[in-house]
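Postdoc handover notes: sequence design on the structure in folder B. Input tokens:
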């Protein structure tokens, strides 16, 4: 009965794809289990995107850096540390992203983060969950990259916290809500160069208590660009006694 009702609702009031604006399929389950290259993502149907746009997802594949997770452009050889990670440790144990920051995922993150469309977590959250299961199954506690209280009040929610909740639930591990905090207000990273981003977040984070001591921490954020923010978070987490810091993001700029 519910499926029939949904069919007629979609028929009378067709939903529009959040990416291209086309009408989504009326009452018909949309197969979002495969990305643009055919990779199985075990995706769940959503109401946000049409068939074509829902498949515009690009998983990050090997070969890639075993530390920071950046894919190598030549697409040859085995996984190995990149030159930057060999030259200087990023501070975290390893970083991985589920997909590339482009196509539908980029649109979804923009709608979620800047358009304040909280429901988009239903599309992005499962990507975080699958990333946690695939890359860091031995994590013991999860935490989100925190927002400063001023930005949190303006946005109304921490987009990374919702994603961290999906990841923590998938691994059946606790999610710490306030052990890692942002103690200094900073400019939005998107406005800054790589060097400015590093300076912008210096001393911006702190850890209270011993919740992370001796544990493998899964640090979750939405997008990995230069890595300045997660490196600074990893630094204070390691200083607080964390045994390892795994960085998981839904997407990565490539």
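Designed sequence:
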């Amino acid at each position: 009965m519910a499926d029939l009702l949904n069919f007629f609702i979609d028929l009378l009031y067709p939903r529009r794809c959040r990416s291209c604006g086309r009408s989504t399929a009326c009452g018909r389950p949309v197969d979002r289990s495969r990305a643009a290259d055919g990779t199985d993502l075990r995706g769940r149907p959503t109401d946000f995107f049409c068939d074509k746009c829902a498949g515009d997802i690009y998983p990050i594949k090997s070969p890639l850096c075993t530390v920071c997770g950046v894919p190598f452009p030549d697409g040859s050889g085995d996984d190995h540390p990149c030159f930057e990670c060999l030259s200087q440790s990023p501070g975290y144990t390893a970083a991985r992203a589920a997909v590339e920051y482009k196509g539908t995922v980029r649109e979804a993150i923009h709608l979620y983060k800047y358009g304040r469309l909280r429901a988009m977590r239903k599309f992005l959250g499962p990507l975080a969950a699958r990333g946690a299961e695939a890359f860091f199954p031995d994590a013991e506690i999860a935490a989100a990259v925190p927002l400063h209280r001023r930005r949190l009040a303006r946005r109304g929610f921490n987009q990374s916290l919702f994603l961290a909740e999906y990841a923590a639930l998938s691994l059946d591990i606790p999610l710490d809500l306030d052990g890692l905090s942002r103690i200094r207000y900073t400019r939005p990273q998107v406005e800054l160069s790589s060097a400015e981003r590093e300076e912008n977040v210096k001393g911006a984070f702190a850890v209270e208590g011993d919740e992370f001591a001796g544990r493998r921490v899964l640090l979750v954020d939405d997008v990995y660009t230069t890595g300045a923010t997660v490196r600074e978070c990893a630094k204070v987490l390691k200083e607080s006694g964390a045994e390892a810091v795994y960085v998981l993001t839904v997407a990565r700029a490539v």
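Context for whoever picks this up: Residues 9 and 213 are 52 Å apart (CA to CA). Don't rerun without checking with the PI first.
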